Amino acid sequence: xxxxxxxxxxxxxxxxxxxxxxxxxxxxxxxxxxxxxxxxxxxxxxxxxxxxxxxxxxxxxxxxxxxxxxxxxxxxxxxxxxxxxxxxxxxxxxxxxxxxxxxxxxxxxxxxxxxxxxxxxxxxxxxxxxxxxxxxxxxxxxxxxxxxxxxxxxxxxxxxxxxxx
Length: 165
Prior knowledge:
Blueprint: H1 3-14, H2 20-27, H3 31-43, E1 60-68, H4 73-83, E2 86-91, E3 97-104, H5 107-120, E4 125-132, H6 148-164
Antiparallel strand pairs: 1-3, 1-4, 2-3
Helix pairs in contact: 2-3
């Protein structure tokens, strides 16, 4: 992938509705050239779609990490998928390891989900851990940009502290 395609992807990631003519102006190429490149990225399955990013005020997000018995892994994935709470489900390296991002309007619903997982898969979930998101610092696909000014001072202070000790 060349630098122009990478630039197009960065622009579309930040604003998927930007007109090809505007992208072309930013990159110094024609609207038609942008359209051809985007069409190729779509046909190559690099760009998989466009969506609206919806902010759910007050929603609680949790990263759920589970280790299941080998025979229960598919059942647990199916359960999470059907729960209505999982927005992302990943198979991790290692036997029976699953990571899911679950979201609900209230923490009590996520507690209930964990309770139902334990009840439904009694003895088949070896370990489970849920970490609730306290704050989103950056989410490229959720419309949250990283604020360098907020964290720059902390990083510089940390470097100074490391060099002193």
